[in-house]
């Protein structure tokens, strides 16, 4: 695997990963997400993502779809709290076609009022589906609590009232303010020479002017733990508890990623799954989640249980958290945890689509790509004392925010 990167004259960054094979991936990731929305712009970032598929000055919505599907390719997009990604998978001989299309979708979408109104209706249906799923909405409500009303805690879909009031001029203001070339990264993964990729990029982006972002993201307020109960009249109690955590730049993120997997990550043998489901039969699902953001992070445990079992479940969870803070894990436990996590990361890395999307985001935020050897070295360097130190800091019961739906 050969990795190259360039900064084009417009300020757009280019990440090129040369690999053998007939299948290629390319796309753009923009450093714009929910947290870039203003007070009355809730849902704008997600709406812009939808509208990229609805027409450019050269292609209609139907033509955009056909430009990809007529060559047997697939195109997709998604919005997060901090970024937006549009990308495609295709056979390598169609690079010029796909490269040009994605660039036009990002830089030349028309945002007609007719398309805005139509897409708002679609997103309102999506919001209704979201509201009907308490297991999903509680995680957003929890994040809003730990980030104290900052846009980082806002749900990605937005709200109907704000969306139904969107007008083309206002949406264009948001787009021009946030979609500046210095916040864009174009990525390509495929069997191409760096000369071909660079030449194509210079051609496609030749007319893009240098524009730099002119604002700073809203600073987070100091963290204040909250305990809150909401009556949702659900058939079971939904519970989320957690804390702010380590950022994308914090060296402790490797230690905490390991700790999080031991606690309740993607493995059935995790501490919480073994205690709450396998031993006690109190829950169907329990997950411990860690998301790192630019200057902070979100760690939370989610579970659903019978209302009458809530206090018992909460005690088991708190006792488990305290056990990690009170004593170091054994060397055997640590060795097994590292083996599981490294194997999991290696397996995920074999999925090229997943790998390039994760790598593009990593490069957008940090300006570098961490290879497997470096990642393995970081995880293998974690000690039992490091694990205990992070547990004491993040699992502190006095710092927990707890949100309960019942």
Describe the protein.
The structure is a single chain. This protein is of the alpha+beta class and 406 residues long. The protein has 15 helices and eleven strands. It has helices spanning 44-51, 61-69, 95-107, 113-131, 134-146, 160-164, 168-178, 194-204, 252-264, 271-279, 310-326, 331-349, 352-366, 372-380, 384-394, and strands at 2-7, 13-18, 23-30, 74-79, 84-91, 184-190, 227-230, 237-245, 283-292, 297-305, 401-405. The strands form two sheets. It has a six-stranded mixed sheet, sandwiched between helices. Strands 7-11-8-10-9 form a five-stranded mixed sheet, with helices on both faces. Strand 4 (74-79) and strand 5 (84-91) form a beta hairpin. Helix 11 (310-326) crosses helix 15. The termini are far apart.
Record the SSE blueprint.
Elements: E1 2-7, E2 13-18, E3 23-30, H1 44-51, H2 61-69, E4 74-79, E5 84-91, H3 95-107, H4 113-131, H5 134-146, H6 160-164, H7 168-178, E6 184-190, H8 194-204, E7 227-230, E8 237-245, H9 252-264, H10 271-279, E9 283-292, E10 297-305, H11 310-326, H12 331-349, H13 352-366, H14 372-380, H15 384-394, E11 401-405
Parallel strand pairs: 2-6, 7-11
Antiparallel strand pairs: 1-2, 3-5, 3-6, 4-5, 8-10, 8-11, 9-10
Helix pairs in contact: 9-15, 10-11, 11-15
């Amino acid at each position: 695997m050969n990795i190259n990167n360039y900064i084009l004259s417009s300020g757009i960054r280019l990440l090129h990963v040369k690999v053998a094979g007939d299948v290629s991936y390319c796309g753009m990731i923009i450093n714009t997400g929910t947290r870039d929305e203003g007070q009355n712009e809730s849902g704008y970032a997600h709406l812009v993502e939808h509208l990229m598929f609805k027409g450019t000055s050269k292609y209609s919505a139907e033509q955009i779809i056909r430009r990809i599907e007529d060559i047997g390719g697939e195109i997709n997009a998604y919005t997060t709290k901090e970024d937006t990604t549009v990308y495609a998978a295709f056979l390598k001989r169609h690079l010029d076609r796909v490269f040009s299309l994605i660039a036009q979708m990002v830089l030349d979408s028309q945002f007609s009022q007719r398309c805005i109104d139509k897409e708002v209706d679609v997103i309102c249906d999506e919001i209704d589906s979201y509201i009907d799923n308490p297991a999903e909405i509680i995680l957003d409500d929890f994040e809003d609590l730990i980030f104290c009303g900052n846009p980082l805690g806002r749900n990605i879909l937005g709200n109907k009232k704000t969306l139904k009031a969107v007008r083309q001029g206002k949406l264009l203001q948001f787009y021009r303010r946030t979609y500046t070339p210095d916040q864009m990264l174009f990525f390509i993964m495929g069997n191409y020479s760096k000369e071909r990729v660079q030449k194509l990029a210079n051609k496609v982006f030749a007319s893009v002017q240098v524009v730099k972002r002119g604002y700073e993201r809203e600073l987070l307020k100091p963290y204040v733990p909250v305990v809150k109960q909401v009556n949702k009249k659900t058939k079971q109690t939904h519970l989320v508890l957690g804390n702010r955590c380590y950022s994308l730049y914090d060296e402790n993120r490797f230690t905490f990623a390991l700790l999080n997997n031991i606690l309740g990550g993607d493995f059935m043998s995790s501490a919480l799954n073994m205690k709450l489901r396998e031993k006690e039969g109190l829950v169907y699902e329990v997950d411990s989640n860690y998301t790192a953001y630019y200057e902070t992070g979100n760690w939370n445990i989610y579970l659903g249980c019978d209302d009458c079992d809530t206090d018992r479940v909460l005690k088991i969870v708190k006792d488990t958290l305290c056990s990690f803070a009170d004593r170091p894990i054994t060397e055997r436990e640590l060795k097994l945890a590292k083996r599981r996590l490294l194997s999991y990361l290696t397996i995920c890395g074999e999925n090229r689509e997943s790998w390039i999307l994760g790598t593009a985001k990593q490069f957008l935020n940090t300006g570098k790509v961490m290879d497997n050897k470096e990642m393995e070295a970081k995880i293998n360097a974690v000690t039992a004392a490091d694990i205990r130190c992070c547990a004491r800091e993040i699992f502190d019961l006095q710092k927990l925010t707890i949100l309960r739906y019942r």
